[in-house]
Amino acid sequence: MNDHIAGGRARRGPNRRGFLAAAGLTAVGAAVGTAAQGWSGTARAAGAFRVPAEDVRHTRTWMAWPDRTAIWGSDLGGVQADIALIARTIAKYEPVVLCANSASAAKARSMCGSTVTVITSIPVDDCWMRDTGPVFRTDGSGALDAVGLNFNGWGNKQSHARDALVAERIAAYAGVAFSSADLVGEGGAVEQDGAGTLMATRSSLVNGNRNPGMSQRALETAMCAAYGASAVIWFDGVRGKDITDDHVDATSRFLAPGKALVQMPLASDTDAFSKDARQQYQILSTSRTATGTAMTVAKLQGPDYNKIRSTNQDFLASYANYYVCNGAVISGQFGDTAADQAAKATLARLYPGRTIEQLNIDRLGTGGGGIHCVTQQQPAA
Prior knowledge:
Pfam families: PAD_porph. The protein is of the alpha/beta class.
């Protein structure tokens, strides 16, 4: 969810669904506002539990079905088609469970097809499962549990009465122990290498709309306890330009312990998000992991916004917002043919042995999100 300027065409910070007071934000914010203060030591001691890297084997992928015109307006049908395409594609490689409200479950089943399991026991407000779903952890000895990040609608910017309960309800459905982290955040705000190192933007987490009065050091302690990590690489990020306050997973990703990638802007791009991407690359290039290993950083070239299909000012064209599933990497393609092909080649080089699937997700991109944003992995224990 970024804000780009390319060749003079301004990409305004996606006002993803307009921050939606019309969708009941004020009432819901009052109803669940106490969640933002819920750091009362409820997180389980990390012990041997750790959030593994995304490329470990998964039991299933979790997704959610959007059905609210109050959020998506006339874009809803197109976004549903993109969600269905993503779900069907992932289902070629691993099971997909999609949470849908009862009133829209039949449509979800029709559009997703028989390879995707649609359930109605976990109601949802929207489709951003990366942010609302639980973060699963393994202990290396066959045990699995889940942590919730106390989702508060990206700082009470969108109604989320149902989404605030999704993490705990999925953990119950999966039959695993659940605890709440000692911070408020979203899965897209934190990247993990599975070996003790995290990365995140200050703009998303060291932010009064999630964690008022909480210092960076206190956040590090809470993040490391939740993820089973011991070090955090911080980027400044971009505050207040999009609904997420600049989630890290649209720009920088871990490939393995000591290895990362950053989606780079064109040399001519000078907007805040382009400057932030360059800063993220520089910081990662001089960082070390929790075990002291120097980071090596690959570049993933972003597209030219003058050559992509979408002309929407809110569009997010992030190749880096890909999803790693069993045997495949699922990424977006945006219509800049040369950049799309180059991104596919880069991902194939970085993920040898995995099929690279590129999908047209233009309707979802108009909402400021991508494939990683709408998926959440459940790793095999």
